[in-house]
């Protein structure tokens, strides 16, 4: 018999940062030793506490186990310009643990962060710089993004997806606690 899991999406807390960074490491296939983790948590705390620029949400299973997270907000400077338009806001990070992908969790996190960004920042346009993976590209296309250009950030190529028609999502299929 299959057990149904309760998925909850809520605003992230600073105490979630170590687990959020581990999920990011899994997705990017990198690892962090404990000493580095403390430094990373410290650096990310500054971003986390900047409520004027970013919003963070997490998805958890059965009220304890983080399975994904999403950060969005005002576009960071190096991401603003895409063919040659300036973009106001972006989703900077969205990560879902491999075993929880293709269940709609990423889409629901996206909707909630998207709606919050529309309410808080009132952008006129929107951009996402995606890792160069076909699955990620399909995800952004399914959300209405238009593939715009490819650029190199550090050692990785990323593809820009843009939105100009910004409308809030009407509903969500998950429990949300803000």
Automatic annotation (TrEMBL):
Gene3D superfamilies assigned? 3.40.630.30
Q: Which InterPro entries match?
A: Acyl_CoA_acyltransferase, GNAT_dom
Q: What PROSITE patterns does the database record attribute to this sequence?
A: GNAT
Q: What sequence ranges are listed for the domain N-acetyltransferase? A: 7-168
Q: Which Pfam families match?
A: Acetyltransf_7
Give the top-rank taxon of the lineage listed in the UniProt record for this protein.
Answer: Eukaryota
Please provide, alphabetically and separated by semicolons, the GO molecular function terms listed in this UniProt record: acyltransferase activity, transferring groups other than amino-acyl groups
The protein's name is N-acetyltransferase domain-containing protein
